[in-house]
């Protein structure tokens, strides 16, 4: 019982770190273009994260039952796998946050589950990881880049003769809606991952016998990620909002609109856990490339891609070591 409580608590702490690590990147475009004041943006994002967390459970089921095979018969060992995965992901979150790199908490958690599962000799469903994690891991950012580039070109063509100041004011107002849509999508995507790992711990501990998500799990996960969002993650906001490309309101609107569309599609249609951060970053690069490629800070984008690629491996290695150590202590 005590180990289950500890694991659930750690999952909620992970949700808090996910909030300031990932959700801050989701609002960076609106803050950078001054469409929203930072504190207002954080309050709005926290609220929309909470609402988004209650809109679906498909991703939670994917994380909770289709990545690593855990049952009530596994008992303490199954709980240790979840705990090690969470701690491994949290360690990597802290490292990337310190350096201001918008890596993916989602990929860190999934890498942690796979690494801890391997270390504990559990069945890891690589076919599911391949189809619902690795493939979307590449497709979602690529789609974000291409669609944002095309949308930005269309906006530039439609508003070519419009008075610039007036057009920018309108896009600033529109960003209130597009930023809220991204925040809602982030809650829909990332909060479900926290729900999923809590369910794994409950199943392993014998306190839950199916893949359904109890209401208290939904509400506590939503509260944790919303609180973390409101706390803010200014290092990552600065990286996404200003260090990749100097955005104007039209570009911010285009990047947010595309990002939100991808988040909803992958969650509702495929139940695939993708990275909000990487989708937003790719969309920002896309609008930058559509406007002036030379202004895109490709070195910064390259560093982000490097962190993106190494995240599942790094968190998986940390989690595997932690799983071995924890198994000796329990």
Summarize the structure.
InterPro entries: Phos_transporter. The protein is mainly α and 330 residues long. It is built from twelve helices and no strands.
Low-confidence stretches at least 5 residues in length (pLDDT < 50)? Answer: none
Q: What's the helix-strand series?
A: HHHHHHHHHHHH
Rg over C-alpha atoms, rounded to the nearest angstrom: 19 Å
Strand percentage: under 5%
- Distance from first to last alpha carbon: 13 Å
Shape category: elongated
Number of helices: 12
- Broad structural category: mainly alpha
Mean pLDDT: 88
Largest β-sheet summary = none
What percent of residues adopt helix (DSSP H or I)? over 70%
Would you report the number of β strands?
0
Protein name: PiT family inorganic phosphate transporter
Keywords: Membrane, Transmembrane, Transmembrane helix, Transport
Pfam families: PHO4
Subcellular location: Membrane
Keywords:
mainly alpha, 12 helices, transmembrane, 80% helix, 330 residues
Question: Overview of this structure, please?
Answer:
The chain has 330 residues and is mainly alpha-helical. 80% of the residues lie in helices and 0% in strands. The protein contains twelve helices and no strands. α1 (2-32) packs across α2, α7 runs parallel beside α10 and α10 packs across α11 (276-291). The longest helix is centred in the middle third of the chain and has 41 residues, at 164-204. The model has no long low-confidence stretch (mean pLDDT 88). It is found in: Membrane. The chain crosses the membrane at residues 42-64, 76-99, 128-151, 301-326.
């Amino acid at each position: 019982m005590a180990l289950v409580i500890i694991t659930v608590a750690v999952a909620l702490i992970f949700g808090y770190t996910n909030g300031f690590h990932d959700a801050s990147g989701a609002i960076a475009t609106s803050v950078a273009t001054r469409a929203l004041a930072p504190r207002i943006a954080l309050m709005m994002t926290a609220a929309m994260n909470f609402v988004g967390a209650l809109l679906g459970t498909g991703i939670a089921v994917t994380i909770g039952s289709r990545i690593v095979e855990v049952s009530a018969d596994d008992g303490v060992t199954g709980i240790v796998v979840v705990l090690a995965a969470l701690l491994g992901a949290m360690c990597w979150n802290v490292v990337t946050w310190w350096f201001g790199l918008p890596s993916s908490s989602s990929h860190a958690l999934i890498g942690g589950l796979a690494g801890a599962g391997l270390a504990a000799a559990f069945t890891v469903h690589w076919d599911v990881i391949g189809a619902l994690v690795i493939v979307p891991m590449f497709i979602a950012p690529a789609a974000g880049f291409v669609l944002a580039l095309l949308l930005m070109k269309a906006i530039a063509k439609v508003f070519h003769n419009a008075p610039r100041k007036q057009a920018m004011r309108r896009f600033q107002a529109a960003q209130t809606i597009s930023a809220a849509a991204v925040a809602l999508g982030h809650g829909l995507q990332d909060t479900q991952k926290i729900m999923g790992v809590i369910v794994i711990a409950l199943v392993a501990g014998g306190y839950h016998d199916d893949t359904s998500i109890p209401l208290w799990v939904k509400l506590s996960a939503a509260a944790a990620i919303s609180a973390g969002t409101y706390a803010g993650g200014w290092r990552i906001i600065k990286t996404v909002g200003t260090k990749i490309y100097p955005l104007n309101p039209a570009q911010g609107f285009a990047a947010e609109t595309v990002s939100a569309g991808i988040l909803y599609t992958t969650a509702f249609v495929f139940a695939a856990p993708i990275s909000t951060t990487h989708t937003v970053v790719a969309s920002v690069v896309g609008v930058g490339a559509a406007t002036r490629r030379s202004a895109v800070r490709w070195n910064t984008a390259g560093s982000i891609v490097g962190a993106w690629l190494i995240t599942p491996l790094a968190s998986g290695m940390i989690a595997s070591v932690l799983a071995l150590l924890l198994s000796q202590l329990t």
